[in-house]
Amino acid sequence: MKDLFLGLVFLALGVAVIVASQEFPNVGDLSYGAGLFPSLIGAGMAIGGLFLMIGSGRQVIREASENGAANLLPRPGIGWLLPFVPCVAVIAYIYISDTLGALLSMALIMFVLFCLRGVRLLPALIVSAISALVISYAFTNLLSVPLPQGMLGI
Amino acid sequence: MPEFIDGLLLVLNLKTMMVVVIAALFGVFVGAIPGLSATMAVALLVPITFYMDPVAAIAAVITTAAMAIFAGDIPGAYLNIPGTPSSAAYVGDASALGRKGRAREVLGINLICSVIGGLAGTVVLVMIAPKLAEAALNFSSFEYFWLAILGLSSAVFISPGSLLKGFLSLMVGLLLATVGLDMITGTPRFTFDVPDLYAGINFIPVMIGFFALNEVMKLFASRRQAPGEIQESGVKQTGTVFGMVPHYLKRYWRNLIRGSSVGALIGALPGAGADIAAWITYAISKQRSKEPEKFGTGHMEGIVDASSANNAAVCGAWVPALVFGIPGDSITAIVIGVLYMKGMNPGPTIFMNNSEMVYGLFTAFFVANLILIPIGYLAIRSAHIFAITPARLLMPIILCFCIVGAFAINNSITDIWIMLLSGIAVYYISSADFPVAPAILGLVLGGILENNFMTSMLKANGNVMAFFERPISAVLGGLVLLIALFPLLSKLWARRTGQAMVANASDGDVR
Question: Which of A29, A56, A87 to mutate to test the interface with B (most CBs of B within 10 A)?
């Protein structure tokens, strides 16, 4: 089922790339240019996506006839959201680091993630504080990366 | 000769040696924790190497990679979980011995074989690379086009798993490589008017997303039974680390030589890395053994072959990376990024323009492999630390490292977004069993491929036959064809020998 969907995505992406590539200019009076290579990639994606769809489409039909179509639908629940928790944390960092500063943002993110993973409060607090301090010290002072200082810098 | 001395001095000074030792400790730690792979170790290291001298940076990468590949054996012997995919081939044997209380003995053998394999790979690198570079000086855009194709097609065809998915994964990488200003016409392509994208997508944040954020996401998906949280078995480990080493080396010296040389060659093949080397040499060892029935039940023979092969491959992979700028595996794909960052553009001219650097690099290889012995010994003695470090405590810290590391390359928020999006994309496609290595090779090689393709097309006025007219380019073209037929040939071979060797390497190169 996932393959069917991904095949569709690749097909659509491939076609979109080919269409977008037509607008890139050619070299001199030749019939090809900046668009040639992306078009080839787009064609590869579209054809590959099509094959993936056909292959998994067959499998889906076979499974549906064996077990009934209801089994194919993803099971309800919030389990599939779990892997996106770290992504939310990254987005949160992007938006809060300017005001809170890198140090506090990192400590906050780690603390929340620790708690979500079932680490007890006190160890979570200690580990996140120490790691945030170490990381921000290492990057700011040893590698001189201008991490956002936020309100601590004022 | 003075260049040689200069090269030695670039490595054998206090600062670089300290970097090497720290990198070795880092490599042991990351490699030994299940779920964190050698590639991830290198990807996390890159933002830090950005601020080092070129040779120190490269030495750090080499040491980390060699160390992590060895350290992957540690949880294999104690917990039956390979610490990195490259240790997966012989984890059954190693853990069977571990359950008998002989984990230290196995790891001692692993360590010495890794060192010898790594040194053999280094010798291959030192011997072959300069000679190959001389030949490569005559290469034109046609040959480079074929070399890039060769690297990409072996990534797709040799890597385990579905061919179609490997191909699509490669297309994703190539598409990412086209982002930015076109090199011939100067037109912005797929930049969506984001100024930071005009120079193209920086591949370091992408790699951090691919190999680190992706793993963090996987751990969060796995609920409670994360790898590394499994309890250590209660077997009392006895025996010395190196006590039995001479005995086994005397008995299996042929395996050691075979594993090291085959491993180095597989590594030197563009697109195939340490994990494939380990699987293939293990299969060869089993096929050639006088007692193949003992394999998988705690037999040392296959361990000798495969654990020398994976470290040999790590060094061998540098041959195409240095000489042609074509990475041999995902670690050297990252390395090529580091080399460009440091102004050491890989290619045959690196051996002329930067000869003391190259000698420094060769020295770094020897040092990195030799430092495996003391640090590896300490790691074996204190192996229980890795068993009790829960991955749930590390993942949030690694996540922060990803964020800050992606930011540090250009001090730009855009790079954090790129890291995030590539991590999500790879998490999704790798959960549908797409291999990741072709995508990263596509990203690194896409620019080289397109440049040489377009240059050749302009030179030949659009005549495709010109790609086969020069003798070397015709040979390379033929080689590509041969690799394209590899899955078919290997199936025939597997049918003949009755074992599906490549199919065994199921979860090989994803990490």
Answer: A87
Q: Residue B511: what pLDDT?
A: 36
CA B108 distance to own-chain centroid: 23
CA distance B217 to A88: 11
Contact A145 B411 (CB under 8 A): yes
Question: Do A140 and A83 sit in the same domain of this protein?
Answer: yes
**Closest B-chain CA to A88:** B420
pLDDT bin (cut points 50, 70, 90) of residue B358 is: confident
Residues A130 and A64 both lie in one domain: no
Among A19, A43, A72, residue at a domain's last position: A72
Nearest to B457 among A6, A32, A110 (CB): A32
pLDDT per residue over B320-347, tens digit each?
888 888 887 788 888 888 888 787 788 8
The amino acid at residue B140 is S
Cβ atoms of residues B366 and A88 within 8 Å: no
pTM: 0.82
Q: Which residues of A touch B454 (CB under 8 A)?
A: 36-37
Residues A115 and A56 in one domain: no
3-state DSSP call for residue B499?
A: coil
Is residue A58 located within the same domain as residue A83? Answer: no
**Which residue of chain B has the CA closest to A79?**
B221
**Which long-range contacts link B405-409 to residues 24+ away (Cβ below 8 Å)?**
B405/B44, B405/B46, B405/B47, B405/B48, B405/B204, B405/B208, B406/B47, B406/B204, B406/B205, B406/B208, B406/B209, B407/A145, B407/A147, B408/A139, B408/A143, B408/A145, B408/B47, B408/B50, B409/B47, B409/B50, B409/B202, B409/B204, B409/B205
Q: Which domain holds residue A127?
A: 79-153
Tokens of B178: 């086209």
A3 touching B (Cβ < 8 Å): yes
φ/ψ of A145, rounded to 5, equals -90, 130
Domain ranges, ordered by start, for chain B = 2-504
Based on the fold, state whether residues A66 and A85 are members of the same structural domain. no
How many Cα neighbours within 13 Å face the side chain of B306? 31
Number of compact structural domains in chain A? 2
Q: Which residues of B touch A109 (CB under 8 A)?
A: 396, 399-400
Q: Is A74 on the interface with B (CB under 8 A)?
A: no
* Span B13-30, pLDDT tens digits: 888 899 999 999 999 888
| A147 and A84 within one domain | yes
Domain end residue (candidates: A72, A100, A121) = A72
Q: Do B224 and A82 touch (CB under 8 A)?
A: no
Judge whether B248 and B304 are in contact, CB under 8 Å.
Answer: yes
**Partner B contacted by A39 (CB < 8 A):** no
